[in-house]
Amino acid sequence: MPLETYNEQGIYPGYSCLIEYLEQNDSWSYLEFLRLYRERLLNVGPFSDDWTALDSTWRRRFQRELKERGKDISKVRSMM
Question: Phi, psi at residue 54, to the nearest 5°?
């Protein structure tokens, strides 16, 4: 079962955390994002015991938001 859940505007739980991180930083690191927002993300869902699925979901969201802002994902620090 996919973990992606969006409302009609394409907003998902934790969206504001990701946007806040991207707007407050000039360079981006997926690992830094997770480190800074871990507690908030775990409290907004999606709720799952499947850590691989959670990582995939947030990695995909992170990459999608960067692409929408015209950023070159290959230049993002620490995507792994």
Answer: -60, -45
The burial class, CB within 10 Å (0-12 / 13-18 / 19+), for 4 is: exposed
Q: What is the mean pLDDT of residues 14-32?
A: 92
Provide the residue ranges of all domains of the chain, joining segments of one domain with +: 15-73
Give residue 78's region: left, alpha or beta (phi > 0; psi -120 to 50). Answer: left
- The span from the CA of 34 to the CA of 38, in Å, is 5
Tens digits of residue pLDDT in 30-74: 999 999 999 998 888 667 788 888 888 899 999 999 999 887 776
Distance from the Cα of residue 71 to its chain's centroid: 15
The whole model's pTM is what? Answer: 0.75
Q: Which residue has the tokens 């620090």?
A: 77
Rounded to the nearest 5°, which phi and psi values hold at 77?
-70, 140
Report the length, in residues, of the chain.
80
